[in-house]
Please model this.
Amino acid sequence: MPQGHVALSTLGGEIGVVRAYLDVLRNSRNATVALEADLPPAAAAASFPAMILPCAIRHEVEGMISRAVPMAILRVEADLTQSYLRVSATAVTAGASAGDDDRIEALRVRLAALYGERARFVRQRWLQGDGFHVRTTIGIPQ
Model:
């Protein structure tokens, strides 16, 4: 886990934190969340604020567990173009959280403090044939 005073990590490092968190859930709560991460090498090496992505993902995963979803898929994709990193995490589950809470708003505030108006944090929800989809997209300048 990153130290509390560390403001920046790399996207690849943050995916490592997410993998460790999902392993803990698998072993402690018998919750299975399959992580599919598609990170080009340049995006994986890009700087990324510590604990933003793991906290956003934790919000979705806790919702899945509270609804007793036996299996979920979490897909993380990233692209780095013109000095801007965009990361999308999409969860496909049997149910979706109704809305954002104070924890999600705190993540938005932290990104705004670090990057100003160029930071983006957007959550979308929709129902599709294979279940509920929730996508969190984070964009930051490099």
In short: The first helix runs from residue 11 to 28. The beta strands are 8-10, 32-38, 47-49, 71-81, 84-93, 120-128, 131-141. The radius of gyration is 15 Å.
